[in-house]
């Protein structure tokens, strides 16, 4: 743990990150936040792992409404899909969880594609 008051950049996505200041072992958001809105992207992952199709649709739409870019949501869905293929993930959560992720993941992708198509028509 770094207690020197230095700034640590956490890469949430390969090309984007969130800058946080670490002081006395506690991470506190700095005034300058870069990249994806984690508070909108993490729920997408959670409901997909939970197996809820309507929830995945709702969380994708919510993320877009709250200002997350379609690119960030797309990257989140791709990361989730990649995690689903890893043996270590399947071993940790079980085959039943991996299987129930399929439909919500597809629902999230469909919802995002509809939003992208609707935006391109305007």
Q: Strands across the major sheet, in which order?
A: 1-2-3
What is the number of strand segments?
3
CATH topology term of the largest domain? AhpD-like
Regions with little confidence, pLDDT below 50 for 5+ residues = 1-24, 26-34
Q: Could you state the order of secondary-structure elements as H and E?
A: EEEHHHHHH
The global form is: elongated
- Give the terminus-to-terminus CA distance: 49 Å
* Broad CATH class of the largest domain: Mainly Alpha
- The computed structural class is alpha+beta
What is the rounded Rg? 16 Å
For the sheet with most strands, the description reads: 3 strands, antiparallel
Strand content is 15-25%
Number of helices: 6
Q: State the share of residues found in helices, binned by percent.
A: 55-70%
Which architecture of the largest domain does the CATH hierarchy give at level 2?
Up-down Bundle
| Count of the separate structural domains | 2
């Amino acid at each position: 743990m770094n207690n020197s008051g230095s700034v640590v950049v956490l890469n949430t996505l390969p090309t984007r990150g969130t800058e946080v200041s670490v002081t006395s072992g506690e991470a506190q958001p700095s005034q300058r936040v870069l990249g994806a809105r984690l508070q909108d992207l993490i729920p997408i992952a959670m409901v997909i792992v939970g197996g809820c199709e309507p929830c995945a649709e709702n969380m994708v739409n919510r993320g877009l409404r709250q200002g997350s870019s379609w690119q960030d949501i797309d990257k989140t869905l791709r990361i989730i899909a990649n995690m689903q293929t890893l043996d270590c993930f399947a071993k940790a959560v079980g085959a039943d969880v991996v299987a129930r992720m399929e439909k919500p993941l597809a629902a999230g992708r469909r919802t995002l594609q509809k939003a992208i198509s609707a935006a391109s028509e305007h």
